[in-house]
Amino acid sequence: MIQQEQHTIDSLEQILFNIRESSVSPETGFHVDSEDKAAWTARKILQAEQRIQKQKQLAEAYHARIDRWLAETVREDTESIIWFRTLLRPYAVKAIAEQRKGKTLKLFSASVSMRKLPDTAKITDEQSALKYCGKNLKNAVEVKKQLLRSELKKALQSGVSIPGVSLVEGEEELYITAEKGAAKQEAAHDAA
């Protein structure tokens, strides 16, 4: 398992630190001019798409692993901070209150102070609050204005001229899908 993880880490490092150009330049002289070359080219595209998918999965696995590691390492310190603050707070409140001036308790290795946090509005029933504010406190309600592309497209197609918006005709896109059983044929073809 450790060797497999090391191999995976090495693969990730190679991806991260040795990013290279993998495109074929038009000057290579290769042209698709037969069904065999078209099939080969389509296979290469499918293989590249599969590699991209595997790399994305590997990256997601590493992200999840790093997130778990971070959560685990931070958890213990976070719990310690909460516990120590709970212990320190009563003493600090009393000591600061006994001081003749200032709201900072100067200790040997740190300064402890008390600050009042700003008041906040806690929303407990958003629908009721929205209904009330919509009628009585309109400036408390944020309305986001956003253009709906589907509606704009319908209007443009029906002949309406909209300043700042134009209809762009969709291009023909090349889609490549693997045929069923193509993986077995591909392995046999590549082995030959």
What does this structure look like?
There is one protein chain. The chain is mainly alpha-helical and 192 residues long. It has a domain at 33-115. It contains 5 helices and 2 strands. A two-stranded antiparallel ribbon has the order 1-2. Strand 1 (104-106) and strand 2 form a beta hairpin. The two termini are 33 Å apart.
Task: Please sum up the structure shown.
The protein is mainly alpha-helical and 192 residues long.
Write the layout of secondary structure elements.
Elements: H1 2-17, H2 35-98, E1 104-106, E2 111-113, H3 126-136, H4 149-157, H5 182-191
Antiparallel strand pairs: 1-2
Would you tell me the overall average pLDDT?
A: 82
In DSSP terms (H or I, runs of 4 or more residues), the helix count works out at 5
Helix/strand-derived category reads mainly alpha
The fraction of residues in strands falls at under 5%
Shape: flat
Please bin the fraction of helical residues: 55-70%
Largest sheet descriptor: 2 strands, antiparallel
The tally of beta strands, per DSSP, is 2
Q: Describe the strand arrangement of the main beta sheet, using strand numbers.
A: 1-2
> Are there runs of 5+ residues with pLDDT below 50, and where?
none
Distance between the termini: 33 Å
Query: What Rg, in angstroms, do the CA atoms define?
Result: 32 Å
Secondary-structure element series = HHEEHHH
